[in-house]
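Subject: Sanity check before I submit

Could someone independently write out the structure tokens for this chain? I want to compare against mine line by line before I put it in a report. The sequence has 429 residues.
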Amino acid sequence: MESNKDEALKCLAIAQKHRDAGNFSAARKFARKSISLFATPEAEKLLESIEAAAAGAGSSSGDAANANGSYTQASSSATQTHPSAAGSKQRNTDTAGATGKEKREYTVEQLKVVKRVKACKITEYYEILELKRDCGETEIKKAYRKLALALHPDKNGAPGADEAFKMVSKAFQVLSDPQKRAVFDQHGSDPESRFSGMSSGRSPGFSSTPFTSSEGEVSPEELFNMFFGGGTNGGFRGAGPFGGPVFTATFGPGGFSRTRVHVNGRAPPNAQGGQGQPRSLFLQLLPLLLLFAFSILSALPSLFSLSTPDPRFAFSHSSKFNVERQTNNWGIRYHVNGPEFFNHPKIAADLAGGPVRRGSALARFESHVEHAYTQDRYVECQRGMNERERRKEAEIGIFGIGTDWEKVKRIEKEKIESCEELRKLGVLG
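---
Independent answer below. Compare away.
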């Protein structure tokens, strides 16, 4: 089933590792599991190679010597074909006499994939992965998974497979990072070449040494291991074979992130000063913490006080607000609920004390009433002015042709009641 394809590819990669390590029984187990989950030509070919390797390992030493002699004779020829269930395999035409390297096998299909990838420019990332520009993250992962398995140097010995593998890895690193992808979509060039912090002072493109990386980069081989050998959480831990940097890498929506743990048994400078990061974070949050504490302290008196809220009021008479009053300052008429207003402990004491005193509870209450009244009138004034301006513009039209200018003047002179009331109160000039 298509849903099992990802798990089948993982089993295929594990089988490849066990085969390379000489553990043919485990390799055979995972290869068969991959075929049972989702049959692919690569899994079937790998199973055949495992069976052949296992049979060769169990033969006598004399047979092994004869096999080595026949292999040496075969390597001196330019090409040699071997029958198999999937079709004939070819051998790389490079001779081993000068370099001492053994020849690497490849199929016609693998050679076609290499040629297609190398026919693309190194910055044609969408074309390299055979993707559309509006593709999503899942499509990018699937495309990389397919091409990485087909072009990995351990599986594909076709001429130029190493370069094609690096091109696929580079395309995936750019398109799987939202920031780099946005820069690439805008400029159409390698995003790392536009920022000195990414290019590390080198010319744009790939590293001249195969499968190597600097401090902030991930090599194609590391990228492949992260993707296929990272376990259930999609992470990967690796270390240099000669005590090099130990790092952790995690794959997520933003692409791959890598963190250095130590170098040659010593913690890096930023790791040695690890206590500085919490302190820096605390200093950044300190203003917010102080503001929050100040707000809490300011609210404490109101939280613990048993103050009675002010009476409710309205500017129109109703059965609930049945007592009419007038503010002492501006003479604003308002209505309150009689029992609630006259039984208020502080306001009742102010009423019994005679005239309204400045700073008293009743004076503060009436000031609140006047503020609410002017706010309502101001909103009505603004609404009326907007409506008058709309009528004026509708009368004038676009070019003023055929406009009744006398009517326009009458509209301009129209008075708005709420605005006039605010002018009388001295709120508007």
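---
OP: Matches mine. For the report I'm noting this point. The chain has a mean pLDDT of 75.
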